[in-house]
Structures are given as structure tokens and as C-alpha cells.
Amino acid sequence: MTKQWTTKKGTHRGGKPFNKTSLHRLLTNVTYIGKLRYKDEVHEGEQDGIVDPDVFEKVQARLNRNGRSGGSEVRNKHGALLKGILRCKACDCSMTPSHSTKAGNKRYRYYVCLQAQKRGWDKCPTKSVPAGEIERFVVEQVRAIGRDRLLARESIEKASASVREQIAALATEELLIQRNLAQWQNQLADVIRKLPAGDEDSVLLGILADLQDRIRENEKRLSEIRIDSDGLRKTMVDPDEAAEALASFDELWDTLVPREQAETLQMLIRQIEYDGMSERIAITFHMAGIKSIESRLLAETPE
To answer: Residues annotated as region Disordered (predicted)?
Structure first.
């Protein structure tokens, strides 16, 4: 079973059976041999190790042989952490992973603005950005937010406000459709009354068919709106609990294998907007992702 504890709000965490993810974190945690991990570096810790270093190294060798971590290129097919979520602010379009190989077969990864790629390099002020550089920057920004509870709460409340705006827009659309449906239903009844039994008035039949089509299409849209609204409401999170989840992101990021790192970022972040002129980024969190991260990073934390 994983570690079990109770938050300040009385919420129970952990106490779940180990799965492949939590077991791998346990087996690769250098804390158990008296060391500490910081970013890509491992340092001597102040605590005593409780696992024999030779045994630990043998376990790492076995994991590597079995391909558990998959190396640095398993972030996804193109080795890009931010694929699908990075956008060029100047062109309002996606930035797609790319790479080039130079002397010595050294591979350089980039994210390239689709506008620059399709219409010409001079069409975009951003053009491209080194992949490793912006990936590290984004991760550090998320970690920094996690370390600062006030900043984390502010970011979460901003994301929550965006969700509330979407819900409000859907509610407005729903109200408009309901009014239209009531009007069309009355018109439909009126047309039916004007059609004598057995009469095949082509004009009235055309109006009847048009009204039926509009009613059917808008009833379908009404159903979609209600499903979307329910889905958005379910993504709403408690700011304090979400801030706690982001704090755990900082602690556990380096214990994740590359594939898990990519999955975690894709789950947590809805969009990253990069301004090549000012070299600034704007991160928009995915509310549903924060709930998933809360479960993944808190409930599965091993002892």
C-alpha cells in the first residue's frame, strides 16, 4: 500500500495498492540510498540510506534493460514535452516540434511556428525556439507556482474564472435555443393545423420540413450544451487542494520517467502561449488536469 495521510482539510490521501507508476517511483527514489535529487543532478543527502547502494544500482540496471524509462526520447514520438500545447502568440497558431542534425550527428530540437513553416520565415517574429530551453523554462515556471501557495491559488482561480465564463456562455446559448424551440414548436403546430387531412400543399409541407429540421438540430445542440456544461462543472476544484497538488508537482517531477513527465504536463496544461519578441510565456492550466494531477501526484505518493 502507498503512504496514507490526512490533509489539513481532513481529506484522506493515499492508502492505495502500488501500481506500475508508483512502484517505479519507489524503486528509482535516490532518497533511500541517502542522496537527494535536484533537477538532473544527484547530491549527497543529510539522511542515512536505508537501501544498500549496490542493490539500488542493480535495480536501476535491470529497469534500464527492461526499457522502463525508455531514454530521453520517449516524451512522445518526437521527443517533445510541449507538443500540442505550445502556441505562437504573434501568429495565434501552434508551434510544432522539429529537429536538425549537424556535424557529428548531434541532434538539435526546436519548436517551429506553423505560420513561419508554411508561409515563410519572414512571416513570423518568433519563428522558432530551442526545445530544451523552453521545456526547462515551462517546467521551472510550474514548479515555481507550486512552491508559492498564493501564486498557485491565484493561477487556479484565474483558470476557474475562465471555466465559469465558458459555463455562462453555454447557459446564454441554451436560453436562446430554448426560446427559439418554443417559437418553432408554436409555428409547427400552426402549420399542422393549416394542413387539411390528405392535403399536400407543397408550400406548407416545405415549411413543415424546415421547422422539423431546425427543431431536431437545435434539440441536438441543446443536449450537447448540457453535457459540456456538466463536464465543465465537474472540472472545478477547491483552490487549496489544487495548490497542494501543484506543490507536490515540484517534489515529484524528478521522480517521473520521461514518458510520465510528458503525460503530466499534457494533463496539467491546456495551453502555453509563447511571445518570441519579449520571450515571455503565458501558461493556461487545465482544470480537469489539476484534478487528475491531484489524484496522481498525491494519492499515489509512495512511502
So the answer is: 1-20
d(C-alpha 253, C-alpha 264), whole Å: 9
Q: In whole angstroms, what is the distance from residue 85 CA to residue 140 CA?
A: 16
Q: pLDDT tens-digit profile of 145-199? A: 878 878 878 877 887 888 889 999 999 999 999 999 999 999 999 988 887 665 5
Report which DSSP code applies to 299.
I
* Element (DSSP H or E) covering residue 37: strand 35-38
Q: Which residue has the higher pLDDT, 284 or 247?
A: 284
Cell numbers of 233, please?
A: 462543472
**Got the DSSP string for 164-191?**
HHHHHHHHHHHHHHHHHHHHHHHHHHHH
List CB contacts of 228: < 8 A, sequence separation 6 or more: 170
- This prediction has a pTM of 0.55
Could you tell me if 91 and 113 are in contact, meaning their C-beta atoms sit under 8 angstroms apart?
yes
Lookup: cell for 95: 508551434
